[in-house]
Amino acid sequence: MLLLNPKKHSRNYPDERSRDIMRKTIEFFENKGKRKLKADDRDRVWYADFIEFQKQEEIFAALLTPSGYGDPDCRWDTWRNCEFNEILAFYGLCYWYTWQVSILGLGPIWQSENKDLKRKAAQWLKDGQVFAFGLSERAHGADIYSTEMCLTPQGDGTYRANGEKYYIGNGNKAPMVSTFGKMADTGDYVFFVADYRHRNYDLIGNVTQSQNYVANFALHDYAITEADILSKGQAAWDAALNTVNIGKYNLGWASIGICTHAIYEAIHHAAYRRLYGMAVTDFPHVKQMFTEAYARLVAMKLFALRAADYMRSASPQDRRYLLYNPVVKMKVTTQGEDVINLLWDVIAAKGFEKDMYFEMAARDIRALPKLEGTAHVNIALIVKFMANYFFNPAEYPDVPQRNDAANDDFLFHQGPAKGLGQIRFHDYNLVFNSYDLPNVNVFKGQVEVFKEMLARATPSEAQQKDTDFLLTLGELFTLVVYGQLVLENARIYGVDDGTVDQIFDFMVRDLSKFALQLYGKPSSTPQQMDYGIKMIRKPVVDAVRYQRVWLNQVYVLKDEYEMNP
Ligand SMILES: Cc1cc2nc3c(=O)[nH]c(=O)nc-3n(C[C@H](O)[C@H](O)[C@H](O)COP(=O)(O)OP(=O)(O)OC[C@H]3O[C@@H](n4cnc5c(N)ncnc54)[C@H](O)[C@@H]3O)c2cc1C
Fold first, then answer.
1. What percent of the chain has pLDDT over 90?
2. What is the CA radius of gyration of the chain?
3. CB count, 10 Å around CB of 156?
4. How far, in Å, is the centroid of ligand 1 from the Cα of 328?
5. Is pTM beyond 0.90 here?
6. Alpha carbon distance 241, 433 (integer Å)
7. Binning pLDDT at 50, 70 and 90, where does residue 54 land?
8. Residue 388 CB-density burial (10 A; 0-12 exposed, 13-18 middle, 19+ buried)
9. Using CA atoms, how far apart are residues 194 and 176, in angstroms rounded to an integer?
10. Are 238 and 244 in contact (CB under 8 A)?
11. Closest ligand 1 atom to 132 CA
12. What is the DSSP string of 182-204?
């Protein structure tokens, strides 16, 4: 089964240590139990128990120290980090968050030329510490060009840091907060480390009311020497963007983990709740909602797993991951919202109850599309790849499934974060044409019309600057990329044709929805409106396939997993 089931953990790992990390983490949460998990959520308890657990087991150290800086079992291996992400979010987004912001904090460190700071970070990891990424500022949101934190040279080779950061996870506990700023004299970007225990580090408070500590902190004349500097100028800028390139990928896994736990809870409740003398799962619309939620969740996982193959195989010559990662970020996370919406409509009042995981899921699933660059920022990025994707394909050797025990070296050597418009992609038709399934075929027809629209009714200069128009165009493009990698991975995982066709049932409807949006945009031309209408299609109805997926894949989940009380 593709979905994570912590009670039947069976994922393939090339080494015992990796398997052990996953099993022990599951054990930690199952021993903690749902009652305590929920009580801590309600009481907003700082997750010291989890941090202590990972420290005792040296888990962050094993997973987040690149080869060469730690013990022999340490490596940065996206295959295992994916599942670790998923497990943490399966039990609670807050546990995932402290890990995620540690990843972000480590990004500028592992990309730095400062070997002493890298060694120091490796030691802190071994000691069980967490890390933090000090990029955001209160007034500037996504606009990091406007960063105000600054380093003022003192004339003796040292600096004084002054400024404030806002929304910085783990900013209350990280001995190395990777802090982004500018040089006061030249305006050059800089990344340096600050320690929360320093007396000139002013921990102003927690911006949120949650188990997380999302810090607002200020540095007042905080003394910095060259030894504290991670990178300067272009390298510092690249480190910021490349860190987000790595980190944003994990947000998809948080959504997958949340949705997986939620679907088990929801179907268990619905299957055993009787109304009017029948089970709730006997209602036709309920079957439809569960089947759709399941199909969407399977697609989320197939896409995110396949994107990891490309990320792990990336090189200066193959930067396709720079498209696939923002798609994980914006598409997988927004699909997560759709899954929770569907499930919540079924379980209704039950989703509010304080003892349900679902209550947290319904709240937390909203976070993922918004953090680390909103869905909009990522769509704006995605459309930069569209011309080459459709009109200038290149040949690449096949990328296999990457479940090997390799250190993902390239992630910390990504090079300048530019030249996106030059990146080329393998031909999406290859995989679409290798399937002959009713709904995949309908979808292919829609994509052909979309491509024709781009060629014959090409968005004008003005439309290309109109982000409102561009967002809809980006949604349409994203669906093609999503479908491509889902199909590639469905083959690798041997997903049955019925499930694939069920996935493309919603893909056809989603494409139709965005085509209608394009039609209705203020600036769409009559020609573009015609193409919009031509893209609207109905999925092929196949009652037998649908019933098979519902009974054999979805309904069977009703007793598959329940968290220990
Ligand atoms: C719980 C939480 C934890 C966080 N943790 C961290 C952390 O550890 N470290 C850290 O550095 N930051 C952190 N952040 C900050 C987070 O990454 C930002 O919230 C996020 O980048 C978006 O900024 P904003 O919410 O201020 O939106 P704004 O930037 O104010 O955006 C406003 C609107 O403009 C749109 N917009 C902005 N720029 C563009 C663009 N280029 N193209 C299209 N649309 C655009 C947005 O989509 C949005 O609709 C955290 C935030 C929260 C809430």
1. 96
2. 24
3. 7
4. 17
5. yes
6. 35
7. very high
8. middle
9. 6
10. no
11. 8
12. EETTT--EEEEEE-TTSTTEEEE
Residue whose CA is closest, atom 27 of ligand 1? 141
* Chain center to CA of 565: 29
Looking from the CA of residue 169, the nearest atom of ligand 1 is 8
Ligand 1 pocket by Cβ (under 6 Å): 101, 133, 135-136, 141-142, 167-169, 208, 214, 371-374, 376-377, 380, 467
Phi, psi angles (nearest 5°) of residue 226: -55, -30
Number of Cβ within 10 Å of residue 115's Cβ equals 9
Which residue out of 136, 241, 471 has the highest number of ligand 1 atoms within 8 Å of its CB and is therefore the one to mutate? 136
Closest CA to ligand 1's atom 7: 168
Cα 135 to ligand 1 centre (Å): 10
Distance 203 CA to ligand 1 centre (A): 21
Ligand 1 atom closest to the CA of 471, numbered from 1: 43
Instruction: Name the residue at shortest CA distance from atom 26 of ligand 1.
Output: 141
> Could you identify the residue written with the tokens 């937390």?
364
CA dihedral 424, 425, 428, 430 (to 10 degrees): 110
DSSP state of 397: P
Count the neighbouring beta carbons within 10 Å of the beta carbon of residue 387.
12
Alpha-carbon distance of 243 to 236, in angstroms, equals 10
Alpha-carbon separation of residue 51 from 11, 20, 34, 72 (angstroms)? 24, 17, 18, 22
Amino acid 415: pLDDT? 86
Nearest CA to 442 out of 490, 501, 486 is that of 501
Pick left, alpha or beta for residue 536 (phi over 0 → left; psi -120 to 50 → alpha; otherwise beta): beta
Distance 214 CA to ligand 1 centre (A): 13
**Residue minimizing CA distance to atom 4 of ligand 1:** 167
Average pLDDT of the chain, as a whole number: 97
**pLDDT tens across 284-301, in order?**
999 999 999 999 999 999
* CA nearest neighbour of 90 among 28, 45, 20, 14: 28
92: left (phi over 0), alpha (psi -120 to 50) or beta: left
Please state, in angstroms and rounded to a whole number, the distance separating the CA atoms of residues 133 and 106. Answer: 8
Tokens for 54?
A: 């990972």
User: Cβ–Cβ contacts within 10 Å for residue 36, how many?
Assistant: 14
How far does residue 219's CA lie from ligand 1's centre (Å)? 22
> Are β-strands 201-206 and 159-169 bridged in parallel, bridged antiparallel, or unpaired?
unpaired
- Looking at ligand 1, which residue's alpha carbon is closest to its atom 45? 377
Contact 188, 232 (CB under 8 A): yes
What is the per-residue pLDDT across 132-176, written as a single tens digit (0 to 9) for each? 999 999 999 899 999 999 999 999 999 999 999 999 999 999 999
Helix axes 333-347, 357-364, angle to 10 degrees: 140
